[in-house]
Design a protein that fits this description.
- The chain has about 270 residues and is an alpha/beta fold.
- Helix content is about 40%, strand content about 15%.
- Strand 6, helix 5 and strand 7 form a beta-alpha-beta unit.
- It starts with 6 loop residues before the first helix and ends with a helix.
- It holds the Pfam family Abhydrolase_1.
Length: about 270
């Protein structure tokens, strides 16, 4: 039977309306190499405001991850919100899956919009992309905020059981959920105070999966596999735009120590 109503699609429509009312417009950039990038950009840019790039994480598209705080930021910044590759309306036919390539594509979009200086906030996977962008384009990136992203993780951390999920393929199945059960697991890991997950109707979770998680599933898993691949703390590029912060109660303290050591070396 054909589905006649989707709560997820309705919420998506509400976010689109909210973004437009907040002074943003939807823009598609063809990067001419098989890559299409979608980005929300200001309808009118004001030179008196700094440019702020918001980079989303895994899961839903950019609107779902930034929509609830957008109105608080609009008065103070020229806001740019891209969909990363394989999310929303962004995709590529190229084989690259690294956060470095994602960062290059995002920067090309910013250059298309004549943005020469910017600050950025990267959330989760977007934190890895944001860190890479700051390292590659240090002359353009002024300030960096990384949220919920273990940018100092190493490949060995997975093997040593640092994370609650130690198998990369299992992590990919949770982060790109295809069943209500996996989506419940993801919510349990990612929400600070998750609702009683057993009470969430499977039909609502399946609706969300059908709208947000069924396209580019293998490509998204490839993005996840690329993060720890040959990753060593000594090979992580240095950036100067970020300042050290505190670990949350659930943060692996070893990575916080690594950040402190690199800060002492003048990395941040």
């Amino acid at each position: 039977m054909t589905r006649c109503f989707s709560l997820t699609e309705a919420k998506n429509w509400c976010y689109k309306l909210s973004f437009k009312k907040s002074g943003l417009r939807s823009a598609i950039a063809d990067l001419q190499d098989g890559t299409i990038m979608h980005c929300w950009v200001p309808k009118i840019r004001k030179d008196s405001k700094p440019n702020l790039l918001l980079i989303h994480g895994l899961g839903a598209n950019a609107m779902w991850q930034w929509g609830d705080i957008l109105r608080q930021m609009i008065p103070y910044f020229n806001i740019f919100i891209p969909d990363l590759l394989f999310f929303g309306e962004s995709y590529t036919t190229r084989p690259e899956r690294s956060e470095s390539f994602q960062a290059q594509c995002v920067m090309r979009v910013m250059e298309r919009n004549s943005v020469r200086k910017l600050s950025l906030v990267g959330l989760s996977y977007g934190g890895f992309v944001g860190y890479s962008l700051a390292a590659q384009f240090s002359e353009a990136v002024e300030r960096v905020v990384i949220c919920c992203a273990g940018v100092c993780m190493e490949e060995k951390d997975l093997k040593e059981g640092v994370f609650r999920v130690s198998e990369l393929e299992e992590a990919a199945r949770i982060l790109v959920p295809q069943t209500p059960e996996k989506l419940r697991e993801l919510m349990g890991f990612s929400l600070f105070q998750p609702p009683p997950l057993s009470l969430l109707p499977s039909c609502l979770l399946a609706d969300f999966i059908g709208v947000m998680c069924t396209e580019f599933t293998e490509e998204k898993k490839e993005l996840i596999r690329a993060i720890p691949n040959d990753r060593k703390i000594s090979n992580i590029p240095k950036i100067t735009q970020a300042s050290g912060g505190q670990c949350s109660p659930g943060c692996y303290q070893g990575r916080g120590t690594r950040l402190q050591h690199r800060e002492a070396q003048g990395v941040f």
